[in-house]
User: Which sequence fits this backbone?
C-alpha cells in the first residue's frame, strides 16, 4: 500500500494552528532576546563595577536580574519549548525534519541552557555571597553561555528559511545545513536586537529606581540609551546584509511587500532613535510608564510583524526548502535518501496515501464529496489559510470563493498543481480530489 | 491497514543520525533527571503550603517554609530545562507516538504552555506574598500548585496517548468522523497516581539532605534541624510505602510485576526505605534514590518499547544516517564543557551554602580553578564554532 508519513491534523478554526505557534514565538523572542542581551550587559556592568569599585551597580544588576528571572526564565524558558510543542501540533513533519537533522545541535544547546538556568540563580542570589572576582568570572561565562545558545539555534532557524547552499542536499550533513550563507548575518542581526532589548528593558529598571537614587537612575538610563542605540544600529546594519542572503522565493515575497516594510522600519527606526536620544540627553524624562510602553511598542509593532514576515517569506517551505508548509516533502534530498512525495500524491491522491483518512472517506461519492472536500482542504491548505468565511489569516473562502467552482478547479490544477505560484506548495492531485476541494470551497463561499 | 505499516510509515524520512539505543539511553537518563526535579518542585511546594498555615505559630515552620518555597522555585526552572532533553530524544526515536499524541491533543498542548507560564508566575507571586506575610499567600500558592499539577496531568496525557497506537485512529476519527479539534484526554490513573506519589519520599529525602548539609552551620539551631530531619524521615517512609503499593498495582496492570526490572526496582526501594529509616548519611540515600529514579525511567521505557514493538514498530531498524560532526560537538560540549561548568557552579553553591557571610575563592582553590577552566572552555568553544562555520561556509561557497 502506498502510504506516506502524515500525522493527524490539528486544526484551530478562524486563526489556524500555525498562528498559535506564531504567537508563542513572538512572546519567546522578546523574552529570549532580552535574556541574551542582558547576559552581555551584565558582563559589561560587572566588569565596570569590579574595575571602578562601583558597588551601586550590583544593586541595579540584582533588580534587573529579578525582572529577568520572571521575564526570561519563566516566560522565556517556557515559551521556548512552547514553540516546539505548538509547532509539533501544527506542523509535526516540519518540526520532525528539524529534529532529525539537528538533534545533536539541539542537545548541545541544551547543555548551554542547563548552565544558563543554574547560572542565573547563582548570578543573582550569590551577588552578595561570593567574592567579586569569582562572581565576575561567573558573569563572563554566563554571557558566553547565553551567546552560545544563540549560536546554536541560529543555524537551525536559518535552515528553516533555506540551507544557504546546495551542499546539504548532496551530503545531508548537519554541518552543511547549519552553516548556510544566511546563518551569520542572521546571528549578528539578532545580537544587535538582543543588545537593544537589554537596553530597552534596562530603562524600565533604571527609571523605577528614580525615587530612591535619582543620580544613579539617570546615569543608568543614559547608559541604557547608548546600549540601545548601539544595538539598534547593529540590527539595522545586519538586517541589510541578512536581506541579501535570502533565497529567491523569499526575495520575491519581500518585493511584494517591500514598500510597506521599508516604511514601517523607517518609522520604527526614527521613533526608537528619538526615544534613545531622549534617554541619553534627558534621562529624567524617561519614567517607568514610558519605558514599559516602549517595550510593548517594540513587541507589537516591531517583533510581531517582523516574525510574521519571516514566516511568510519562508513559504511555501517550512524546513530546508524540502518540507512544504502543508507537510508534504516537495523535493529530493539525496544526501539523506529523502524522496519528493509530490509525484506519488499526484498519481494516487491524498486520500490514498494519507494513513489518517477513515475508510468511508477514501472513495469520493456524491454523498460524501463535500465532506471529503472539506477534509482535503484542511489537509492541503489550513497551515497557511483560515478556512472560515471571515477567518483572520489569508481567508481562503474569501480569496478563492469568487472564482467559482470551475475557476477554483482550474486554478488549482494549472497554477498550484504545476507549482507555478512562488509562495504556494505544489499540490498536484488526481482530478476527483481537485473536484472535491473546488466543490467544498465554492459551497462555503455561497 | 496493518498497524505495523501505520506506525513505521510515520518515521522521519531523514532517518536518525546515530544508533537508536544511544537515544534510548539518553532518554532514560535525562527523563530521570527531569522527573527528580518535577517531584522535588511539587513536593516542596505542597509542603510549603502546609508550612504557610503554620509559620505564624511555629518558629521552625517560619524558617522552613521560605526555604521550601525557594527550593520549589529553583526546581521548576531546572525541571523545565531538564525536560527539554527527554522531549528531544523521544521525538527522534519514537516520533510517531509523540507527534500523534501532540496532534490528537493539540488544544491541550497550547493550554499546557500558557498554564505553565501562569502557574509559575503565580509561584513567584506566592513567594513574594509569603515574604511580605500577606494573608492571601496560601491561597495564591494553592492556585499555583493546582495549575502546576494540572500541567503534570496534561503531560501524563501526552505520554499515555503516545503509547496507545491501537487507539489512535479511534481517537482521531471516532466512528469514522474526523475530529481535528485536539481535545483528546486519556489518563492512566494508577500510573499517574504512582508518579505523583513519588513527590512525598523525594521531598522527605531532600529534607534529610537539607539537615545534613546545614548541620555544620552554627547559625542554624540544632533543634530546628532535628525537627526538619524527623519530618523528612517520616515523609520519606510514609511516601515510599504509598509509592511502593501504587508501583505494584501499576506493574500488575502492565503484567510486569515479576519482570527483573520491576524486581530490581522493588529491591532498590526496600534498600532506600531502610536507608531513609536509618538516616545515617542522607547523601548515600540520595545516591540510591538516583538509582531508583533511573530504574523507574527504565520501566517506563520498557513499557513503551513492549507496546510499540508489539504492534510491529521497528525501533532498532530505524534507518540511520550517521552524523559524526555534530555528535562529536555534543559529546565534547556535554562531557568537557558541561561537566566543568556545572561543577564550577555547584562547587561554588556548596561553598556558599556552607559559609556564613561572603565566600572567597582563593587562588588555587577548586572553585577558582573550575571558574578559570570554565571561562577558557567557553571561549575555546566560541572560537571553534566560528572556525568551523567559516570552513564549512567557504567550502560550500568558494
Assistant:
Amino acid at each position: 500500500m502506498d502510504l506516506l508519513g502524515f500525522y493527524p491534523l490539528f486544526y484551530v478554526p478562524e486563526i489556524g494552528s500555525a498562528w498559535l505557534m506564531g504567537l508563542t514565538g513572538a512572546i519567546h523572542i522578546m523574552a529570549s532576546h532580552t535574556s541574551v542581551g542582558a547576559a552581555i550587559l551584565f558582563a559589561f556592568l560587572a566588569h565596570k563595577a569590579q574595575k571602578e569599585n562601583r558597588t551601586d551597580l550590583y544593586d541595579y544588576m540584582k533588580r534587573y536580574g529579578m525582572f529577568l528571572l520572571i521575564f526570561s526564565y519563566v516566560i522565556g524558558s517556557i515559551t521556548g519549548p512552547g514553540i516546539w510543542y505548538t509547532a509539533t501540533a501544527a506542523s509535526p513533519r516540519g518540526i520532525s525534519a528539524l529534529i532529525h537533522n539537528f538533534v545533536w545541535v539541539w542537545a548541545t544547546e541544551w547543555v548551554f541552557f542547563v548552565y544558563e538556568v543554574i547560572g542565573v540563580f547563582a548570578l543573582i542570589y550569590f551577588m552578595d555571597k561570593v567574592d567579586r572576582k569569582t562572581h565576575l568570572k561567573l558573569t563572563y561565562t554566563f554571557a558566553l553561555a547565553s551567546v552560545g545558545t544563540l549560536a546554536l539555534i541560529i543555524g537551525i532557524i536559518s535552515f528553516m528559511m533555506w540551507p544557504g547552499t546546495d551542499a546539504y542536499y548532496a551530503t545531508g550533513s548537519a554541518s552543511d545545513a547549519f552553516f548556510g550563507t544566511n546563518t551569520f548575518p542572521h546571528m549578528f542581526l539578532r545580537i544587535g536586537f538582543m543588545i537593544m532589548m537589554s537596553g530597552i528593558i534596562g530603562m524600565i529598571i533604571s527609571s523605577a529606581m528614580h525615587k530612591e537614587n535619582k543620580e544613579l537612575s539617570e546615569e543608568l538610563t543614559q547608559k541604557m540609551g547608548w546600549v540601545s542605540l548601539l544595538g539598534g544600529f547593529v540590527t539595522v546594519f545586519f538586517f541589510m546584509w541578512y536581506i541579501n542572503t535570502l533565497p529567491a522565493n523569499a526575495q520575491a515575497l519581500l518585493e511584494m511587500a517591500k514598500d510597506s516594510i521599508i516604511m514601517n522600519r523607517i518609522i520604527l527606526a526614527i521613533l526608537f532613535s528619538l526615544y534613545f536620544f531622549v534617554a541619553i540627553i534627558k534621562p529624567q524624562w524617561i519614567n517607568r510608564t514610558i519605558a514599559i510602553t516602549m517595550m510593548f511598542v517594540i513587541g507589537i509593532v516591531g517583533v510581531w510583524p517582523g516574525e510574521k514576515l519571516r514566516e511568510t517569506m519562508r513559504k511555501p517551505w517550512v524546513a530546508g526548502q524540502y518540507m512544504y508548509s502543508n507537510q508534504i516533502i516537495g523535493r529530493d534530498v539525496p544526501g539523506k535518501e529523502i524522496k519528493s512525495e509530490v509525484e506519488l500524491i499526484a498519481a494516487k491522491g491524498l486520500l490514498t496515501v494519507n494513513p489518517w483518512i477513515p475508510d468511508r472517506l477514501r472513495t469520493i461519492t456524491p454523498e460524501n464529496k463535500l465532506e471529503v472536500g472539506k477534509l482535503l482542504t484542511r489537509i492541503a491548505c489550513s497551515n497557511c489559510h483560515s478556512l472560515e468565511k471571515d477567518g483572520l489569516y489569508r481567508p481562503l473562502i474569501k480569496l478563492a470563493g469568487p472564482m467559482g467552482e470551475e475557476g477554483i478547479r482550474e486554478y488549482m490544477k494549472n497554477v498550484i498543481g504545476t507549482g507555478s505560484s512562488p509562495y504556494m506548495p505544489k499540490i498536484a492531485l488526481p482530478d476527483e480530489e481537485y473536484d472535491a476541494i473546488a466543490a467544498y470551497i465554492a459551497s462555503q463561499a455561497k | 491497514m496493518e498497524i505495523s505499516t501505520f506506525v513505521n510509515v510515520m518515521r522521519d524520512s531523514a532517518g536518525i543520525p546515530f544508533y537508536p539505543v544511544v537515544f534510548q539511553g539518553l532518554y532514560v537518563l535525562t527523563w530521570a533527571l527531569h522527573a527528580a526535579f518535577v517531584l522535588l518542585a511539587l513536593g516542596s511546594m505542597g509542603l510549603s503550603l502546609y508550612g504557610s498555615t503554620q509559620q505564624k505559630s511555629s518558629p521552625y515552620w517560619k524558617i522552613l517554609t521560605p526555604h521550601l518555597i525557594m527550593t520549589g522555585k529553583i526546581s521548576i526552572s531546572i525541571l523545565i530545562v531538564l525536560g527539554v532533553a527527554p522531549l528531544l530524544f523521544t521525538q527522534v526515536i519514537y516520533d510517531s507516538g509523540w507527534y500523534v499524541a501532540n496532534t490528537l491533543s493539540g488544544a491541550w498542548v497550547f493550554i499546557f504552555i500558557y498554564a505553565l507560564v501562569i502557574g509559575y508566575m503565580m509561584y513567584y507571586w506566592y513567594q513574594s506574598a509569603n515574604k511580605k506575610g500577606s494573608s492571601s499567600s496560601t491561597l495564591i500558592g494553592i492556585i499555583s500548585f493546582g495549575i502546576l499539577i494540572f500541567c503534570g496531568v496534561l503531560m501524563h496525557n501526552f505520554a499515555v496517548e503516545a503509547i496507545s497506537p491501537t487507539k489512535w485512529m479511534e481517537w482521531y476519527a471516532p466512528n469514522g468522523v474526523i475530529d481535528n479539534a485536539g481535545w483528546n484526554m486519556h489518563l492512566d490513573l494508577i500510573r499517574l497516581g504512582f508518579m505523583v506519589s513519588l513527590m512525598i519520599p523525594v521531598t522527605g529525602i531532600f529534607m534529610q539532605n537539607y539537615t545534613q548539609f546545614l548541620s555544620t552551620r552554627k547559625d542554624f539551631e540544632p533543634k530546628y534541624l532535628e525537627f526538619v530531619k524527623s519530618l523528612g524521615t517520616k515523609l520519606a517512609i510514609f511516601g515510599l510505602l504509598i509509592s511502593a503499593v501504587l508501583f505494584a498495582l501499576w506493574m500488575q496492570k502492565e503484567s510486569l510485576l515479576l519482570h527483573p526490572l520491576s524486581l530490581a526496582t522493588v529491591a532498590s526501594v526496600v534498600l532506600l526505605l531502610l536507608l531513609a529509616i536509618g538516616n545515617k548519611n542522607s547523601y548515600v540515600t540520595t545516591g540510591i534514590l538516583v538509582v531508583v529514579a533511573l530504574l523507574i525511567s527504565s520501566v517506563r521505557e520498557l513499557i513503551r518499547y513492549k507496546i510499540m514493538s508489539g504492534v510491529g514498530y521497528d525501533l532498532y531498524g530505524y534507518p540511520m544516517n550517521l552524523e559524526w560532526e555534530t555528535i562529536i560537538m555534543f559529546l565534547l560540549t556535554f562531557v568537557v564543557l558541561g561537566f566543568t561548568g556545572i561543577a564550577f557552579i555547584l562547587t561554588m553553591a556548596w561553598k556558599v551554602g556552607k559559609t556564613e557571610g561572603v565566600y572567597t575563592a582563593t587562588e588555587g582553590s577548586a572553585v577558582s580553578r573550575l571558574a578559570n577552566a570554565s571561562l577558557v572552555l567557553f571561549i575555546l568553544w566560541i572560537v571553534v564554532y566560528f572556525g568551523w562555520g567559516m570552513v564549512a561556509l567557504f567550502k560550500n561557497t568558494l
Chain B touches chain A through 102 residues (CB under 8 Å). Chain B has a mean pLDDT of 96.
